[in-house]
Amino acid sequence: MWAGVLAIGAVLLVAAGCSKVTDPTSTREALASIGVPVPGAAIRAGAALEVLVGLAALVAGPPAAALVAGSYGAFAVVVWLARRAPDAADCGCFGRSGSPPSVRHLLLDIAFAVGAVLAAATGSASTWHLLINHPAYGVPFLFVIVTGAWIGYLVLDPPATSTPAREVDQADTIGVEPR
Amino acid sequence: MTELVGACVASTVLLTIAVVDALRSHGRALSQLHDLELQENGEGLDDQETTYAEPSEGA
User: Does the predicted interface ipTM exceed a cut of 0.90?
Assistant: First the structure.
């Protein structure tokens, strides 16, 4: 049951890690805002480790779930500290995103951490195991978790909320009659 | 099979959050546009009243 939550969290880890490897700017600024200045190379190394943790969870399943839970627990702490920091503009989750650290981030990080712990406790099958041994379930499972991870990305980094109000004011779709 | 059900439930929860959030963002944007429209129309009415008042004073 909880393997689905673990798998979605693992795919999100891989996506976020790849994003931070390519551009760690936002993550570096987010960490600096909470008083933890980290060079870009170290962030890239950590992001590569994040990708490996996500892949390990997809291949090995619950045995690697503790690493996923630890990662999301660390993210939850960073988001909580960033929310308390006065000058934290970005959450830093996806490297170059402009999404502010919100309660939604915090709750989803905690939910994925708890889901990973429960997946480890129940000992469910991994995504790789399902794909190889039960493709009739594995292929739909892979489709659902990738779709769920994409929706999770949109929840964590919604494109609409990054539009400033002044851009809305200048839009042509206002419907106001010209004077 | 339970893994697939769990993944579907988790994806549905995420989709629900995304839809609710999108609707809230859409509502905020519509509210901003409505306020702007009221402001623009209010200014337009003021101009019309001023334009209408001038010829009557001249007559």
Answer: no
